[in-house]
Amino acid sequence: MGRTSGTSGTATADATGEVPIGVPAGVGDEYAGVAAGYLNTATLGLPPARTVAALREALDAWGAGRPDLDGFEAAAAASRAAYARIVGVPVERVALASTVAGSVGLVAAGLPEGAEVVVAEGDFSSLVQPFAGRGGLALRIVPLAEVAAAVRPGTALVAVSAVQSADGRVADLAAIRAAAAEHGARVLVDATQSVGWLPLRADDYDYVICHGYKWLLSPHGTCFLTVREGAEATLSPAFAGWYAAEDPWESCYGPVARLAPGARGFDARPAYLSFVGAAAALSLIEQIGVPAIHAHDLALAARFRAGLTALGHVPVPGDSAIVAVPAMPAASAARLTSAGIRISARAGNLRFAFHLHNTPSDVDLALDALA
After folding, report:
1. For a tag on the chain, would you pick the N or C end, based on fewer CB atoms within 10 A?
2. Beta partners for 223?
3. Rg for the chain, CA atoms, rounded
4. What 8-state DSSP symbol labels residue 48?
5. CA 276 from centre of chain
6. Is 263 within 8 Å of 206 (Cβ atoms)?
7. Distance between CA atoms of 241 and 264, rounded to whole angstroms?
8. Taking every pair of C-alpha atoms in the chain, what is the biggest distance, in angstroms?
9. CA 68/CA 5 separation, integer angstroms
């Protein structure tokens, strides 16, 4: 399958009444070498060519004894700034992180003893376990559709994934935000399965955490934490290291005299090579634009859902770039694998994920394998 530039603007229906789906404008040759059938971005995003090139250059220089430390720092700063623009917040609201669980742990550690935390049933463990593992909290687990209704006077925090990893369901964040505001609760959103294809304004929530190795096409170790203004005091400073200092390079030894203002005071030391890759990958996300990626991904997912229904399969309902199909026979997964389709199995579902490098040929290849 060729990966060529698409067109921007409003698509026009062809003679069959269908809207053609092309690769979004700007993708160009970034995925020219990618084989057909990779539908597994929900597990691991594919790096664009610019990311691979940036990492190779950095590795070659490091291996030759000429690591570009200034370039590494510039890549970390560029990644922070690009992520801030993608989620619509000032750059000072973004902390560099390394894992989702570590960032959630900052929030969990800052909660008072006995605080009530509402989470969704079956949500990702990295979001839920830091609260369960801390102990001393009242953890309430409710179905995703009931999260907003579960918020009540005395609820301290709602923690939910914007998009569920297991089946692609999209949380009603507007309702959750409204319920939290009514009862004085804070909101933490895990956006790992959403930022990059689903438009999201991080400043609408107290904390948003996103690991970039899925829909942001970045290496593992590139994670971001946004902290809404006024919420800094709720996070524990106990995990701050030298990089969280106002002047990191003057704070390498002894207690940090002064943490950086804003979210940067919660920075984890960035994994340099990972952020070299992230800076390049995020430049592509910005170049194409999340609205265009959102439209593209959902159009492919809708095409796939319609095809599944025609074949007698019933996908989990919703408007998501992730399409999950429960209780498919084991033979279905084997046929998909034989056809070169890369997917994943999660919580009893076969999970398909459509992103910017995919085309209708990928959809049809998967449907043909299931027919």
Report:
1. C
2. 97, 211
3. 21
4. P
5. 18
6. no
7. 11
8. 71
9. 33
Q: For residue 312, what are its two tokens?
A: 């007698």
Tokens of 104: 């959630």
Q: What is the pLDDT of residue 12?
A: 35
* pLDDT digit string, tens, across residues 29-51: 899 989 899 999 999 999 999 99
Task: Write the DSSP symbol of residue 324.
Answer: E
Domain spans, the chain: 1-47+289-371, 69-287
Query: 186 Cβ partners below 8 Å, 6+ apart?
Result: 156, 157, 158, 180, 206, 207, 231, 234
- Residue 259's nearest CA partner among 106, 123, 144 is 106
88 torsion bin: left (phi>0), alpha (psi -120 to 50), beta (else): left
- Across the range 198-214, mean pLDDT stands at 98
Q: pLDDT tens across 273-322, in order? A: 999 999 999 999 999 999 999 999 999 999 999 999 999 999 999 999 99
**Fold for domain 69-287?**
Aspartate Aminotransferase; domain 2 (3.40.640)
| Contacts (Cβ under 8 Å, ≥6 apart) of 135 | none
Neighbour-count burial for 287-308, b at 16+ CB within 10 Å, e otherwise: bbbbebbbbbbbbbbbbbbebb
| Amino acid in position 300 | L
3-class state of residue 125 by DSSP? helix
Q: Which fold has domain 1-47+289-371?
A: Aspartate Aminotransferase, domain 1 (3.90.1150)
